[in-house]
Each structure stands twice: as C-alpha cells, then as structure tokens.
Amino acid sequence: MATKTFTAGSVLTAADTNTYLANAGLVYVASASFSASSAVTVSNCFTSTYNAYRILITTNSSAAGQLQLVLRSGSTNKTTGYYWSGLYNGSGSSGLTGEAESNVGSWKIGYSEASSATESSIFMDLYYPAQAFYKQWTASNLRQSATASNYNTRGGGAPDTGTYDGFQFSSAGGGTLTGKYIVMGYRAA
Fold this sequence. Notes:
The protein has one helix at 14-21; strands at 26-37, 39-42, 52-61, 65-73, 76-77, 82-90, 97-104, 107-112, 119-127, 136-144, 150-157, 166-171, 177-186.
C-alpha cells in the first residue's frame, strides 16, 4: 500500500484515517490466559500475512527453570534443529554470563523461578515463521520477585527453513505455568 503525504491545506478524511493510520504498526493476532499448564500451545497464529511477529508472555511457574519455546506445524511440535545464544545476569551480579546451544530441542527464551510471587515477562520478535525462510528471533526476559531480586536475559537464535503456524512454550524445570500471552503481527504496509 502506498503512503500518502499530507500538505498544508489537505483534508484528513475518515477514509484516510482508516486506510493510512490503521495500516501500520502491530496488529493483534491472538491472546489468552493460562493457569497451571505444563505447556501452553498457541495454534494457527502465524500466517503469510505477516513476516514478523511480536510475542509477549507474562508468567510465573511452580518450578524454577529455563522457559523454552518450540515451533509447531499443525499438531506437530518441531523438536530438533534449534540454535540460540544469550546473555544473562542476576541480582548482585557485576557481569554478564553467556550461553549457547546448537541443534537442540527448543529455544531458551528466559527463566522462571518457583514462586507465584515471581513474574517472568518476555517479549520476543520472531521473523518469517510461516515462510520457508530462515527463522530468526530476539527476546528479552525480566524475572522479578516480590523480594526485588531480578534476573535479566537477552538472546536470539536461528536457523530453520520450515514453515510453522504456531508455537508451544513450557518450563524446562518441569513446573506448571500461570499467566497470559499476546501475539501481534508487524504490518508491512
């Protein structure tokens, strides 16, 4: 879609507003709350309509562990071929620690702590999930507890060239998750 340049004296109509102002930015795709779930499955949220998606997750867990995400095609989880790396630090830490894994069973997108008083918030940008093109992602995670201790992570990963329509996330610590997710697409025009 072309853009429109307004000049002095131009009239901004309702049609212009609907067409040009609404056709930009993030577009709502899906959201839901979940409670005491060992794994949260989000189906049919990725299509060729958008090249990139933003995923927001806020959760707490009944067991400490890495929060992990796998892609889905129909009802099948992809369980191999994930590559990722990240940096993290915790309360009182003066430096960053790095991690990386190649050809493993999931992307590690953050950390959770075994406490309903501790929330873990993640935002993740995922590129080309529904296209046969390399999947790349970046994510940032903050785990904040009621006692103000925190744990920050920043990571990313690639590659894969399959096509996927959804994802599933869980805690590698084996606990259950309670919280909410939102999926939005980046509008290209």
